[in-house]
From TrEMBL:
SUPFAM superfamilies, per database record: Duplicated hybrid motif
M23ase beta-sheet core domain ranges (all copies): 303-405
Gene Ontology molecular functions: metalloendopeptidase activity
Organism of provenance: Candidatus Magasanikbacteria bacterium GW2011_GWA2_56_11
Source organism, top-level taxon: Bacteria
UniProt keyword Iron-sulfur, yes or no: no
Residue stretches in coiled coil: 31-103, 178-261
InterPro entries attached to this UniProt entry: Cell_wall_metabolism_enzyme, Dup_hybrid_motif, M23ase_b-sheet_dom
Keyword tags: Coiled coil, Signal
Protein name (record): Peptidase M23B
Length: 410
């Protein structure tokens, strides 16, 4: 009889069976708080959507006003709408900051829950290993002697199989929980980075808002609310703008001939791919797009560039290798300071509102070389007229014709 039981034991233990016990992951203790945070995050997202819709409405108003005749009253309406739009931009950024903070709290609570799961499973895993070790150390004769009938013996075999199954399930739970824990930690770091970026963006938008308000007040002071004086000012600005355009076009043709001659002599010195430009500043945040319909001065001249948010005095780098065709230095705030670089492949770039220029005309620069420092703060040297706050005006031209810089930037 004992031999039969021993044979049955060997057969049963050697027989492969599928796990029949599902090892449930314990529920975290922060579930209620996490659910509440999720509700708050969704409410913030809805609020942001509402604000962004209001911003879109103001952009339409600006575009509509732009189509009307050039007048001081109309320009004031454009500026008022622009100020309201930037105020909403600030409000939207504040909501995004609040949402990011809630997201960090939610992820932190999730990390706490997942840490508890890992620790709990480690305890269970250790207990299962200890118990299985004790059972495996028992001699077969001791096991057989402990049971009076086959039913009790079979139950014991099933119990051991359950321990082995639970051991595998617990180990898998620990492994998955740890992986999830690392993912959540990475998400927290990403949210913290986003939070810091939003904070910087908020400060830039507040500066932009104040710049819009200051410009409106200055425009009213300069024109003394006179339509005639405003039209005279606009006429003067258009003339100045056209002079700059003519200067850029004329110089570019002259320098390009020189560049082509040099390129034949020293081809290795030139950028292999000038059509792929690098960002001229560390910041990639755009405050005005190429031919932006919401550009507040579009009635006066087209915005053939992108404006990149940059604190006053930010280093400006060459977007590709080439020759400095023009380095327009200024000594007054009314003067527009800029650098133009002529590159191979028919490409040229213009960097406007510079507070300081550190490159000279006819100088060859390579991609990434510092050519000057950003400006555009109203009232500062080189800012030029009609600027509301610090930024870099960045143009790209293809065979002398302005093109969208974003088509050439990574």
């Amino acid at each position: 009889m004992r031999k039969v039981l021993l044979l049955c034991l060997i057969i049963i233990i050697g027989f492969s069976t599928e796990p029949f016990v599902a090892w449930g992951e314990p529920t975290g203790g922060n579930k209620q708080e996490i659910d509440e945070l999720n509700k708050q995050i969704e409410a913030k997202k809805k609020k942001i959507q509402e604000i962004e819709q209001a911003i879109a409405d103001y952009k339409k108003k600006i575009e509509q006003a732009r189509l009307e005749s050039v007048s001081l009253g109309n320009q004031m309406a454009i500026l008022d709408n622009r100020i309201a739009q930037v105020e909403l931009d600030v409000a939207a950024t504040l909501e995004k900051l609040a949402a990011a903070k809630l997201e960090i709290e939610r992820l932190t609570l999730g990390i706490e829950d997942k840490t508890r799961v890992v620790e709990r499973q480690k305890v269970i895993l250790a207990e299962l290993i200890r118990h299985l070790y004790q059972e495996n150390n028992k001699k077969q004769i001791e096991i057989l002697a402990a049971y009076d009938n086959f039913s009790d013996f079979y139950s014991r075999v099933q119990y051991l199989q359950k321990i082995e199954t639970d051991l595998g399930s617990s180990a898998k739970t620990v492994r998955l929980a740890r992986a999830d824990l690392e993912t959540k930690k990475s998400e927290v770091e990403a949210q913290r980075t986003a939070y810091e970026n939003l904070n910087r963006e908020l400060n830039q938008k507040k500066t932009e808002l104040q710049g819009q308000i200051n410009f409106k007040q200055k425009l009213l002071a300069d024109t003394q609310s006179s339509e005639l004086k405003y039209k005279t000012l606009v006429s003067s600005l258009k003339t100045q703008y056209q002079q700059i355009e003519n200067e850029i076009s004329g110089i570019e043709r002259e320098v390009r001939r020189k560049l082509e001659e040099e390129q034949k002599k020293k081809p290795e010195q030139f950028d292999e791919n000038s059509s792929a430009l690098s960002w001229p500043t560390q910041s990639h945040r755009i405050t005005a797009y190429f031919r932006d319909t919401s550009y507040p001065y579009r009635q006066i001249f087209e915005h053939n560039a992108i404006d990149i948010a940059a604190a006053h005095g930010t280093a400006v780098k060459a977007a590709a290798s080439g020759y400095i065709a023009r380095a327009k230095r200024c000594t007054t705030a009314a003067c527009y300071s800029y650098v133009m670089i002529v590159h191979s492949g028919g490409i040229s770039t213009v960097y406007g509102h510079l507070s300081r220029i550190s490159a000279d005309e006819d100088q060859f620069v390579t991609r990434g070389d510092i050519i000057g420092y950003s400006g555009a703060t109203p009232g500062t040297v080189g800012a030029g007229p009609f600027t509301t706050g610090p930024h870099l005006h960045f143009e790209v031209r293809k065979n002398g014709i302005p093109v969208n810089p974003l088509n050439y930037l990574p």
